[in-house]
């Protein structure tokens, strides 16, 4: 069993697990003959989601047998059990199932370690590019591409003030839904991408300044990217600008949230002026 007092020591093992799951997803993507059903929450799930779920759960339970695993594909665990968890793995085996089904490359594997209601380690693996974003608290955020690790940072306040504010927006959403939430005095540029975590990673690597998500998401959608954002200099908050928290409620549904690359900017005014 691996040591967990220092989560950063687990990073390489977690990247290896996310990579293995991502390779399974990619193989199914290329075969193209996956099964697809609709879950009770009306969202789709495929045989690729379930294959990734299975391998991630098996590998995490073998890596740290004492740490429970909460995956989107096996999330019916009541708070009466979860509330005794100091630490747990929080997993979205395939974020961007809709993109996967549509044949787009914008999907990823998300694994986070949550400790005392806050994510402390996060890995976002992108199967189609074989790139990976990762971070653990206090150790910076990185992107691994072609075997090399590059530190990543959100765009600075100076860069944000000097140009249009870059908003990460879903490929499959009317961009006006997002634009209408912001102060019209500011100029905006849209950066279109699928998948909740990948849009957060765009903010972490300075390709976008903000990603706002109105509508249902699960705690597994935000945890891994939240560590990466934080270590890159940004923040994930509710749209009331309160911190997001984990494993405190019976529901695992997140409130509406905003991912920002510059915590000190006056986001309240930027959002409030639109209402
Ligand atoms: C969804 C995707 C989607 C986002 C949804 C998520 P799933 O996750 O990230 O882009 O808009 O809010 O629930 O169902 O593909 O894991
Ligand atoms: Ca998801
Ligand atoms: Ca998912």
Secondary-structure map:
Elements: H1 11-31, E1 36-38, E2 44-46, H2 47-63, E3 69-71, H3 79-82, E4 87-95, H4 97-102, E5 108-115, E6 118-126, E7 131-136, E8 141-145, E9 148-151, H5 157-162, E10 165-169, H6 175-179, E11 188-192, H7 196-204, E12 210-213, H8 219-231, E13 235-238, E14 257-260, H9 267-272
Parallel strand pairs: 3-4, 10-11, 10-12
Antiparallel strand pairs: 1-2, 4-5, 5-6, 6-7, 7-8, 8-9, 12-14, 13-14
Helix pairs in contact: 1-2, 7-8
The structure holds D-MYO-inositol-1-phosphate and calcium ion (2 copies).
Can you give a write-up of this model?
With 275 residues, this protein is α+β, with helices and mostly antiparallel strands. It folds into two domains: 7-151, Fructose-1,6-Bisphosphatase, subunit A, domain 1 (Fructose-1,6-Bisphosphatase, Chain A, domain 1); 165-270, D-Maltodextrin-Binding Protein, domain 2 (3-Layer(aba) Sandwich). It has helices at 11-31, 47-63, 79-82, 97-102, 157-162, 175-179, 196-204, 219-231, 267-272, and strands at 36-38, 44-46, 69-71, 87-95, 108-115, 118-126, 131-136, 141-145, 148-151, 165-169, 188-192, 210-213, 235-238, 257-260. Strands 3-4-5-6-7-8-9 form a seven-stranded mixed beta sheet, sandwiched between helices. A five-stranded mixed beta sheet has the order 11-10-12-14-13. It is globular. D-MYO-inositol-1-phosphate (IPD) binds at residues 43, 92, 95-98, 170, 194-196, 217, 221. One calcium ion is lined by residues 49, 72, 92, 94-95, 97. It holds the Pfam family Inositol_P. One of its GO terms (cellular component) is plasma membrane. Converts adenosine-3',5'-bisphosphate (PAP) to AMP.
């Amino acid at each position: 069993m691996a040591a967990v007092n220092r989560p950063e020591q687990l990073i390489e093992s977690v990247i290896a697990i996310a990579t293995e799951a991502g390779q399974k997803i990619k193989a199914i993507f290329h075969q193209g003959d996956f099964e697809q059903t609709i879950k009770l929450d009306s969202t789709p799930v495929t045989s690729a989601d379930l294959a990734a779920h299975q391998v991630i759960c098996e590998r995490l339970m073998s890596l740290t047998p004492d740490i429970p695993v909460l995956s989107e594909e096996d999330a019916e665990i009541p708070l009466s059990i979860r509330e005794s968890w100091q630490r747990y793995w929080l997993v979205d085996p395939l974020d961007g199932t809709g993109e996967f089904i549509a044949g787009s490359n914008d999907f990823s594997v998300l694994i986070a370690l949550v400790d005392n209601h806050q994510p402390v380690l996060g890995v976002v693996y992108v199967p189609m590019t074989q790139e990976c974003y990762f971070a653990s608290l206090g150790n910076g955020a990185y992107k691994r591409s072609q075997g090399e690790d590059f530190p990543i940072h959100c765009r600075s306040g100076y860069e944000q003030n000097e140009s249009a504010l870059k908003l990460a927006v879903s490929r499959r959403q009317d961009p006006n839904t997002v634009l209408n939430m912001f102060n019209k005095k500011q100029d905006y540029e849209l950066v279109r991408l699928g998948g909740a975590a990948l849009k957060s990673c765009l903010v972490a690597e300075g390709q976008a300044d903000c990603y706002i998500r109105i509508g249902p998401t699960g705690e597994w959608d935000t945890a891994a990217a939240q560590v990466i954002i934080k270590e890159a200099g940004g923040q994930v908050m509710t749209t009331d600008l309160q911190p997001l928290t984990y494993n405190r409620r019976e529901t695992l549904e997140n409130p509406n949230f905003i991912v920002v690359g510059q915590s000190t900017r006056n986001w309240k005014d930027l959002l409030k002026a639109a209402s």
